[in-house]
Structure formats: C-alpha cells, structure tokens
Amino acid sequence: MPRQGDRRHSPRVKLYQRIVAAIDDGTFPPGAKLPPEPxxxxxxGVSRSGLREVLIxxxxxxxxxxxxxxxxxxxxxxxxxxxxxxxxVEALLGSGPRRCRxxxxxxxxxxxxxxxxxxxxxxxxxxxxxxxxxxxxAPACFAHEWAADESVLRAAAGPALVAALGTGSAGPxxxxxxxxxAGAGSENPGGPQEPRGREIPGAxxxxxxxxxxxxxxxxxxxxxxxSTLGATVLGTERGLAVSRPPETPAMLLTQxxxxxxxxVMAAKYLFPAGAPLLSLTPRR
Length: 284
Prior knowledge:
This protein is an alpha+beta fold. The chain has 2 domains: about 5-75, Arc Repressor Mutant, subunit A (Orthogonal Bundle); about 90-270, Chorismate lyase (3-Layer(aba) Sandwich), CATH 3.40.1410. Helices cover about 25% and strands about 25% of the residues. It has 8 helices and 8 strands. A 6-stranded antiparallel beta sheet has the order 3-4-5-8-7-6. A two-stranded antiparallel sheet has the order 1-2. It is globular and about 50 Å long. Residues about 1-10, about 80-85 and about 170-205 have low confidence and may be disordered. Keywords: DNA-binding, Transcription, Transcription regulation.
C-alpha cells in the first residue's frame, strides 16, 4: 500500500492533519457527522476532489466512517481494552502453508497514520515493517506495521518489545538495523523492493509480522488491541506488491495495539479478494 511517509510534506497530508486536529480539539467530536463535502471543501479552502481523497484515506485509517448517501461520521473512541483476542494475521489465514517475506525494516519520522494512531511527537521515530504474508505460495496479506518510539515501548512494557524488534536503537537512518541477514522465508524474488534491515524471526525461526514478534515477547500478556474493518481496492502500488490488478477489491484491517494504556503498535493489513477467509475465534 502507498507509504504515508513518502507524502508527509504534500498538501494532502496537511489537509489530513487539519481534519484530525479538528477532531482532536472537539470541532468534530466522536459520533459527529462531518459537513457535506461541498461545504467542508469550501470551509477548508480546498477542492472537492482533493478533500475526497483525504476522506478515503481517513476511512482507511479508521478515523471516520463514510456511507454512500449519508456522509462521513467521526468514529467513536476505542472500546475498553480486553474486548478482542489478539492474534497475528499469520494465525488468521487458514491452515495452508504460510510464509512471511520482509520488504522493509526502517526507523522513520511520524507519518499521518503512525502519528495519529501512536500519538507520536514530531521528535519521535517509529519502527516500520513492511511484510507480505503468502499462503499456499500466493500473497494473502500485505502488512504495514509501525512500533512506537523506543522510549515509549520501554516505558509501557519494559525492554521486551524493543528486543522483539531486534534493533539496538532508532539510529539515524532507514538501515539503522544493520546489514540484511536473510532468515527462513525471507526471499523476495521479483518483489518491488529488496529487503532492507534485519530479518526478525518468529518462534519457529522464520520471518514474521511485527505483531507476531510482539506476541512472542515476554510482554504478550500486557497487550490489548482495537481494530476496524473496511473495504478498499488495491490500487497501482499495492497491486504491484502482491501481483494483482489495481482494481482488485480488498478488505482492510486497521489495528492499534496498546500496553499499559499507551499505543505501542499500529498496523494496516490488506487482504486482496481471493485470499483465504480469516479464521476468527471468539475470546473465552
């Protein structure tokens, strides 16, 4: 999926941030309906087409809900912790052979998504993982995951989550994790990018998603989450990443993971049409 960090100085990101700021300051409180698009565009001094792009992104990020014919509504605050059973996507994607391919590992400045969901300060840096999960040899999930700044991880859960990332510190640049060392299942033949940073193994020694690494850590019992589900299409960049047409429908799972009441991880999981059905088990 497109990287928000690549657009952080664009007019679209600035508009995204203006709307989020209006939600945070109570101008558009949770549950409130946003003004109609023509009125909101005029109020913000932007084009309707530009506003519509940002509203789509806000919906994908779980900030608002858009319904045809009824406008956009600001989502309610997350429910009390403990209402979900926290499982990595690898455990939800059926019973076929599964493999994770890491496309990127880097520390980066807050993006529109990570800054909002992790409540990051401008001086903090998020650890970003980009991973494709294959099932039966076919791409079934495209995962973008951000961990909060190292200082936040330590304050919320001690050293366990930092250790789970396999990085010594945030460092100055995108390859601060050191040279690439391939783990089992880390090959990426024909992929859009070569893996950067260090492959982080899961419990079985193979590459895994960030959530799986966190759940394998000693802090797993401290973690709670909230999630939203939405519909979207792959688009050009997403389609290339999973070898599917841009117009392919997809389900989008947006998730925020917390420890001690502090957001420590935020993620987008994109499941193209035709991916295995998610296996969801109610919490006991």
